[in-house]
Amino acid sequence: MAGHKRPQFVLFGASLTEYAFQPGGWGASLTDIYARKADVLLRGYNGWNTRRALAVLDEFFPKDAPVQPHLVVVCFGANDAAYPLPSGRGQHVPIHEYKSNLQQICLHIKGLSSTTRVVVITPPPIYEDVRRAYARWGRLAGEYLDRTNEHAGMYSEVCVEVAKKLDCGIINLWELIQRSKNWETECLSDGMHLSPIGNQTLLEELLKVLRNANWVPSLYWENMPSDFNEPSIYDYVHPSQELCSHGIEENDREKNHDC
Questions:
Q1: 45 contacts 12 by C-beta, under 8 angstroms
Q2: Where do runs of H (alpha helix) occur along the chain?
Q3: Cα dihedral 162, 165, 169, 171 sign
Q4: Per-residue burial over 184-218, b = 16 or more CB atoms within 10 Å of its CB, e = otherwise
């Protein structure tokens, strides 16, 4: 879009990111908080793993783009940690490859500009009972788990390791969600994706990361300027202010004693 530009925040990930703009989603709430401060762009793709993300990285984040994002929130791993199939088909990515892919993604994005920052979100926890009950891929689907909480935890550990090594912001969503009482049903909607409470938990943690980061310029909303915030002759004026400032008849003053 030509003309006036704000700092860009890009949400880049799989379904946890794609669903972030649903009502009550963490992305929609982030957009509301950063109104007149930053443009929040959604690049979330249901079902994607780090292989697919890496394949389009140059297309999504070209290094020669005239405008580079100030912040990219990267959220991959829930699908990489899916159950490995003997054929090699499906979403699963071996953990060593996941680590390498995530490193390449973060390094590429951090290299876009000197002011491009990255926050990485780990995979969420998995509530296996609901995940099994939610299975909808045929008569026998409920007998097989497509992913486990143990595997999600292993991929989360690697995700945290990569983020710390590359000096990225990090949200350990796997650990964060499980701190909540009754997290299995209150924070997750289907054993993996976030409920409204889960979305709020993630949003609050993201804002905390942005507030505590020692980035210059700061990307925390309270520290960022608002668009067109300077005084204007078109600013709102209540009629009582206009009448009081120009004086009114004495009897009218009695009626308008608040002036």
A1: no
A2: 15-18, 26-33, 50-55, 57-60, 95-110, 128-134, 149-165, 173-178, 183-186, 196-212, 239-246, 250-255
A3: positive
A4: beebbbebbbbbebbbbbbbebbbebbeebeeeee
| pLDDT above 80 (res 103) | yes
The residues carrying an active-site annotation are 15
Coil, strand or helix: which one is 40?
A: strand
Residue 138 scores a pLDDT above 80: no
User: Which two three-digit tokens encode residue 99?
Assistant: 């680590």
**How far apart are the C-alpha atoms of 32 and 26, rounded to whole Å?**
10
Q: Which residue has the tokens 């980035």?
A: 215
For the ranges 79-93, 113-127, 134-148, 174-188, the lowest mean pLDDT is seen at 134-148
Is residue 174 a contact partner of residue 123, using CB atoms and an 8 Å limit?
Answer: yes
Mean residue pLDDT across the chain: 90
What is the rounded distance in angstroms from the CA atom of residue 30 to the CA atom of residue 26? 6
| CA distances from residue 33 to 6, 10, 164 in whole angstroms, order as listed | 14, 15, 27
Joined together, the tokens standing for residue 82 give 């899916």
Cα 165 to Cα 186: distance, rounded to the nearest angstrom: 33
CA distance readout (Å), 82 to 92, 103, 149, 189 = 5, 20, 10, 18
Handedness of CA 49, 158, 54, 2 (dihedral sign): positive
Tokens describing residue 131: 């995940």
Q: Are 191 and 123 in contact (CB under 8 A)?
A: no
The tokens for 90 are 């499906």
- pTM listed for this prediction: 0.89
